[in-house]
Design brief:
- By secondary structure, the protein is of the alpha+beta class.
- The protein has four helices and nine strands, in the order βββββαβββαβαα.
- It has an eight-stranded antiparallel β-barrel with strand order 1-5-4-3-2-6-7-8.
- The longest helix has 13 residues.
- It is globular and about 45 Å long.
């Protein structure tokens, strides 16, 4: 690598701006009862930079047409436990986003709905494009103990928190047909957790 002299780059450090993201993720059959497709939501386009842990995100809150642009590094320090990830984000100007957009290519698009159930906020993602029909819900936690003790909501079909297949970095590589085939294959395995 040019530009670093005789030193080496540490890839295993956790910079002070990195935070732990704790979340549970659920596969849904469709929108939860009480949530309509016309409800306020965000349109999200994620572009995963091939071979890296980087994601370039465009986020548009539809009701106000407000945009957020950011570059995020997100990775799991202890696979296969994908419930805890390390995340670092840099918010970008439109010009900065355009400069970095040369790295676009592995695109994932979805509509994200905020949804409250029994006092807990969920993000319900309805995927578009090649993954049309996939619906996932996520909810965040401040503490490991709270997350580990959490009971899935009644609208959840399956807890996929610890399934790499349902991480954005993996989903971006799949089509809807490939995802369905993988789910059928996993369901056929007697030891399958999915």
């Amino acid at each position: 690598m040019k530009g670093i002299g005789t030193g080496r780059v540490r890839a295993d450090h956790a910079p002070k701006y990195t935070r732990v993201e704790r979340e549970r993720r659920y596969l849904l059959e469709g929108l939860p009862p009480g949530l309509e497709a016309a409800a306020p939501h965000a349109q999200i386009t994620d572009n995963y930079v091939t071979g890296t842990r980087l994601r370039l995100r465009k986020h548009r809150w539809v009701p106000t047409n407000e945009w957020t642009l950011k570059l995020t590094q997100k990775h799991c320090p202890s696979p296969p436990d994908f419930s805890r990830t390390l995340i670092t984000s840099i918010y970008l100007t439109e010009y900065e986003y355009e400069v970095l957009s040369v790295f676009e290519g592995n695109e994932l698009r979805k509509n994200r709905y905020p949804f409250e159930h029994e006092g807990r906020l969920y993000s319900v993602d309805v995927f578009l494009g090649p993954l049309r029909g996939l619906v996932l819900a996520e909810t965040d936690f401040d503490a490991d103990e709270e997350m580990d003790a959490f009971t899935p909501p009644p609208f959840a079909l399956l807890d996929v928190t610890r399934e790499e297949l349902f991480t954005g970095g993996r989903l971006v590589e799949l089509t809807a047909e490939e995802l369905r085939a993988e789910l059928v294959r996993r369901a056929a395995r007697p030891d399958s957790s999915a």
